[in-house]
Write a structure and sequence with these properties.
This protein has about 200 residues and is α+β, with helices and mostly antiparallel strands. The chain has two domains: about 40 residues; about 150 residues, Chalcone isomerase, CATH 3.50.70.20. The protein has five helices and seven strands. Strands 1, 2, 3, 4, 5, 6 and 7 form a seven-stranded antiparallel beta sheet that branches. A hairpin with a 5-residue loop joins strand 6 and strand 7. The longest helix has about 40 residues.
Length: about 200
């Protein structure tokens, strides 16, 4: 009888262990399925401070891809500096590769490092697509930061809107075409627009 009791207890423990492991596996799968929704919830508001924290701590832009066809240091123009590096959030990379797209999705972030001719980082400029923020200019939130993260301009700066407004048909972007993985010579056009102002 004692052996039967021990055997019954061992079997009960094994059943409980198997059931417990199965439930843990279900929770893991559920957590994986819920991950995209959780990630969307951490997107910053249209706020320069929150955006800076997001691109430097939460999802460091320096770990993102360069804009396709625009890898590494590139020649730049006023007002962004003589040398640039352009980083693009993963959803933005998908958008420009999708030929059916004519604009970026909400949540896309473009980060441009602006360098002096001697490759000293001078500023960081950001475009962040926020649903309903400013429909008149494609819902883009603009921000310019000093190297230490101090906000130099944000929201709807007239200079940003005035310049990028010339590219409204390309979702206000100069770097390359939305819906096409190949980059045109958009920066040269950017310089010409600056000269005309």
């Amino acid at each position: 009888m004692r052996k039967n009791l021990i055997l019954s207890m061992v079997l009960l423990l094994l059943v409980l262990l198997v059931v417990s492991c199965g439930k843990k596996g279900e929770k893991s799968e559920m957590a994986v399925e819920e991950a995209p929704a959780a990630e969307a919830a951490v997107m910053p508001a249209a706020d320069a401070g929150e955006l800076w924290t997001y691109i430097t701590e939460t999802k460091s832009y320096q770990e993102w891809s360069y804009w396709p066809g625009y890898e590494g240091f590139q020649p730049g123009n006023s007002p962004h500096g003589k040398i640039l590096q352009v980083f693009l959030s993963a959803n933005g990379v998908k958008n420009i590769a999708d030929e059916a797209k004519s604009s970026m999705d909400n949540g896309v972030i473009v980060v441009k490092e602006n360098y002096m001719p001697d490759t000293t980082l001078a500023a960081i400029t950001v475009m962040y697509k926020v649903e309903g923020f400013n429909p008149e200019v494609g819902d883009w939130f603009w921000a310019k930061y000093d190297v230490d993260g101090t906000v130099a301009a944000s929201g709807t700066p007239a200079g940003c809107i005035g310049c990028h407004g010339g590219k409204a048909s390309n979702d206000y972007l100069f770097t390359g075409s939305v819906g096409h993985a190949e980059m045109g010579d958009e920066e040269e056009e950017h310089e010409q627009n600056e000269d005309e102002e």
